[in-house]
Design brief:
Length: 121
């Protein structure tokens, strides 16, 4: 799982930089300022949680099952939270915003599991 989280975390961090640059250059003239801000929020949270995934991967071992579960919640959170914000910004379909809190909940669960694992060390 360590290798998997390091690979996925690295890819997600890389994509965060790519998407941030894409938004700053290619989308700046195509999206309203509000929709561009929504996209940038997705990029920021993707990067934060890609780094959290890398941390979970570096700290996890066979006995750290909560860290492994936390890592999966970070991945789910990125998909739901950031993914829904990207889709909302690109399409303008406000109903997609209903998915975003589910991703936020996944992030919170991931962080909580990381804290519980740290307490039990």
């Amino acid at each position: 799982m360590v290798k998997t989280f390091l690979i996925i975390g690295g890819i997600l961090a890389f994509l965060s930089v790519v998407l941030g640059a894409f938004a700053a250059h290619a989308l700046k003239s195509k999206l309203t300022p509000d929709r561009l801000a929504v996209f940038q929020t997705g990029v920021q949270y993707q990067m934060y949680h890609a780094l959290a995934l890398l941390l979970a991967g570096m700290l996890a071992d066979r006995s750290a099952t909560l860290l492994v579960t936390a890592g999966w919640f970070f991945i789910i959170g990125i998909i739901l939270f950031s993914g829904s914000l990207y889709a909302l910004a690109a399409s303008g379909i406000r109903k997609l915003g209903a998915i975003t809190p589910l991703g936020g909940l996944a992030f919170l669960i991931g962080w909580l599991l990381l804290v519980i694992q740290a307490i039990s060390l």
